[in-house]
Design a protein that fits this description.
The structure is a single chain. This protein has 24 helices and 16 strands. The chain is α/β, with parallel strands linked by helices. The strands form 2 sheets. The protein has an 8-stranded mixed sheet with strand order 1-8-7-3-4-5-6-2. The structure holds phosphoenolpyruvate and magnesium ion. The site of phosphoenolpyruvate has 10 residues, from strand 10 and helix 19.
Amino acid sequence: MGAPHEQEIIWQGIGVSPGIVEGDVVVHWQNEEEIPVRDITPAEIPSEIARFEVALIATRQELLEIQQKIAGAIGADDASIFDAHLLVVEDRTLIDEALRGLERDLNNIEFVFHQVAEKYCRTLAAIDDPYLQERVVDVEDVTRRIIRHLLGKSREELHKLDRPHIIVARNLTPSDTALINRELVRGFVTEQGSRTSHSAIMARSLGIPAIVALPGVCTKTATGDYVLLDGYSGRLIGNPSEQTRFAYGQIERQKVAVTHQLEAIRETPSNTRDGRHIILSANIELPSELDAVASSGAEGIGLFRTEFLFLNKTVPPSEDEQYESYKLVAERCSPHGVIIRTLDIGGDKLMHLADQTSEDNPFLGCRAIRLCLAQPELFKTQLRAILRAGAHGHMRLMYPMIGQAEELRRANALLEECKQELAGRGIPYLHDIEVGIMIELPAAALIADQLAKEVKFFSVGSNDLVQYTMAVDRGNERIAYLYQPTHPAVLRLLAMAATAAHDNGIWIGICGEMASEIHLTPLLLGLGIDEFSVGTPAVPRIKKALQSLEFQACQEFAGRAASMTDPQEIETMCRDYAKQHYPDLFDL
Ligand code: PEP
Ligand code: MG
């Protein structure tokens, strides 16, 4: 524990997996392996090559073992993300370059290989492609394993640490995260990463509190330091004072009390005080999150972000593979529904599968439905898998990033083609699958009255809607202050979409992060949102918020908010209103 005279220090990152934990830091692989260098004679080359081959085989074996372990522990879907690691061990560019370097430089193979791998990583990192940049972590991880085998060092794996601790790392690879011993690892903090990085996805599915995007944390902390990790707010506190620990202890107790309260309402319907039923569903990225959804009290799944099944795949999953995943989700959610979103790749995600050149403005580029329409075979494979899975539960389908009716019609034409193909093959499928669209572009909200005539429902993707309305890149920290969900322009677009939906007899949901913000529940409810789809951990809180509110009063409240001009004032007013109605939830 930090000595009493040591100053408390607070660092701010992004909380990606909720929970508060304290403990000793273990800095993971802060110091790279010392790689010895020695000259060799040409006569030693064959024995160096032989050592290299043995290390490659051993590493491959090790990765296969990890993959099997993970498949057993958290499912084959998460384990498949090691396919990319296995490809690194077989990467001819890397191996051939190392062999050439060996002959040219006449140094020991671990030194030559390390240099080659470093250069390779630098080259990948410099390419303006998020997928290739993400691959750097895989190559580094595999390189480290190969070098450890060459050096004959036993691996200092995270799962071998035998005392409770909090991991601090530059980045955790999927293999590190998946092998974490849940009994001993209280939480983790990484310098890199985002909400959608591998480690964040894994942390959520493993239920481990985590913070990402905390630059320099590996050097700011050292193994043995005592820290407090707040996975809700993304705050990491070094040498927490007695006062802070006491305060967090209180917070923890309040959270436990509120959590108990929330458990009691888990099976109750999400009705407002004046009896309006709001569908409260969950967002998922991977089928492995289904257990958490089941125990959260969610009424089905309002957003299944299917692109996560494509993570770390060099080729997209086949129709059958996709079908199996979607079917599992449909069956497990039954009798509730699942809204499955078609591929949202492009932009900042999975560009390698899009097989296209880089774009200057990827968020304004060939993303989501645009990319699917440009690559009909990729799209149709997914549509067939969805239609087939639809026969096993209550499944709906929605297209992301629709900006005009023509895109919707073209997507539907491909959907019809898929139905014909399945019928021709005699394969069962859901004939009358309901189709909806995401409202993510201001253009879509502005023509919502036209679009509403051609779909069964809307779901607002507020993460993108705010980004495109305000022209603020949702991931750019420098202009984050301009990313304002309570801006009057956003509220007007939401109101327009809701009115258009209701005037045309369809319902409207929201599945962006706004839906999980308890202070925005009265506003969204009052604007006429019929369905809230939120991250699983937020389900109980939003249920409690909805049950504490009156629809009619919220309509009046939303009307007042809509007449105001200052986003900050609207935000404050929302917070005050929400605090009046469910103060306890603000302790969570
Ligand atoms: C959104 O944009 O709000 C949304 C739910 O989609 P994603 O975050 O996957 O872009
Ligand atoms: Mg979106």
